[in-house]
Every structure is written in C-alpha cells, then in structure tokens.
C-alpha cells in the first residue's frame, strides 16, 4: 500500500506521520523502540527526500509490521479522559501540586506551601531502599494501564505487578503500626 501511495504522489511526510501514529497507537509499549524508530525515519525522509526516502519508509513499515502489538496505553489514556469528561476525578493530591501554586498561611501568618501540610508530604521514591513508596498518586483505587503479555510490555506488566504488591504491603505495614 505504501508503494501504491508513493506511486500516486502521496507526500512521504504524510506516510511517515501515519507510521509514527501506528508506532504509538498499535505497538506502544510492546516495543517502545518503535516510536523512536518512526521518529528517526521521519526525520531521514524529510532530510533525504525522494526517491531514496522510499527505502527508509519501507524499512520503517516492515519493522512496525513485525513488531509486537499493544494498544494498552491508548486504551488507558482514553479511559482516563472519559473519567475526566464524566467528572469522575479527584483533586490533585496536595503532595503532587506545584509548591508555589497553593500557598497557605501558618499560625503566625507566614505563607508556606500546601505541600508542607502535616501528613501530606511527598515521599521521595529514591529515598526508599526499593525505590517504591506506599503513596497514592491518583487519589482513588483506579487502574487505567493494563499491560499485555506481548513483547517488552510483558516485562513492564511484571514490574507493575511487583510495584503494586510492594505498595499494598507497605500500606498494610503502616496500618498495622497504627
């Protein structure tokens, strides 16, 4: 189909735009290199022009055609946007807000950041021995990203499950300590 488009005079940049969309929309995290490859090929196509650009386009298309596929990120962002449009959202947790955007007055009248409120401090993941805190970043028990078991996304999914298990264990440990 690409050959037919090129023969008909289609702009090679349009073809590369469609291939770049394919890399994110249909391949996603199953092969995270796909987006970088599409971007690099698009840049080359713009630099070298036709007729040689046809080779770069073909290389990109064959790589993307053979890459493992996942639309899990696509589905996740659409579900999150749907929740926003339907008003199913929470305010941004205080500890994630810009420290300059939400000043509050302390008892002496001095201004300080809302991020400094007791019990609502941001916990720095790098300060944890395993790099994971028990802190919630969404504010609700909701999960949007459901990785597939294809390609590199399988590894990401396994990591995500380990992180979720660590957070649950840390929350339970904190609850038991109270």
Topology:
Blueprint: H1 2-7, H2 12-27, H3 33-48, H4 53-66, H5 72-85, E1 103-105, E2 111-113, H6 151-177
Antiparallel strand pairs: 1-2
Q: What report would you give on this structure?
A:
- It contains six helices and two strands.
- The N and C termini lie far apart (64 Å).
- By secondary structure, it is mainly alpha-helical.
- The mean pLDDT is 88.
- The protein has a two-stranded antiparallel ribbon.
- 52% of the residues lie in helices and 3% in strands.
Mean pLDDT: 88
Strand order of the largest sheet: 1-2
Q: Helix and strand succession? A: HHHHHEEH
Proportion of helical residues:
40-55%
Structural class: mainly alpha
First and last CA, distance: 64 Å
- Please compute the radius of gyration using only Cα atoms: 23 Å
Tell me the overall shape: elongated
Task: Enumerate the spans where pLDDT stays under 50 for 5 or more consecutive residues.
Answer: none
| Quaternary structure annotation | single chain
Largest sheet: 2 strands, antiparallel
The tally of helices reads 6
Question: How much β-strand is present in the residues?
Answer: under 5%
Number of strands: 2
């Amino acid at each position: 189909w690409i050959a037919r488009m090129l023969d008909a005079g289609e702009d090679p940049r349009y073809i590369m735009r469609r291939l770049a969309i394919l890399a994110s929309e249909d391949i996603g995290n199953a092969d995270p290199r796909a987006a970088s490859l599409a971007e690099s090929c698009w840049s080359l196509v713009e630099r070298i022009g036709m007729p040689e650009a046809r080779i770069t386009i073909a290389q990109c298309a064959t790589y993307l055609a053979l890459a493992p596929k996942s639309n899990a990120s696509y589905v996740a962002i659409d579900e999150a946007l749907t929740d926003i449009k339907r008003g199913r959202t929470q305010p941004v947790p205080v500890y994630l807000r810009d420290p300059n955007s939400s000043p509050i007055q302390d008892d002496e009248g001095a201004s300080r950041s809302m991020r400094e409120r007791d019990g609502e401090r941001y916990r720095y993941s790098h300060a944890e021995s395993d790099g994971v805190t028990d802190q919630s970043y969404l504010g609700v028990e909701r999960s949007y990203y459901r990785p597939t078991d294809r390609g590199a996304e399988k590894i990401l999914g396994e990591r995500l499950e380990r992180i979720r298990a660590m957070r649950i264990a840390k929350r339970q440990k904190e609850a038991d300590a109270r």
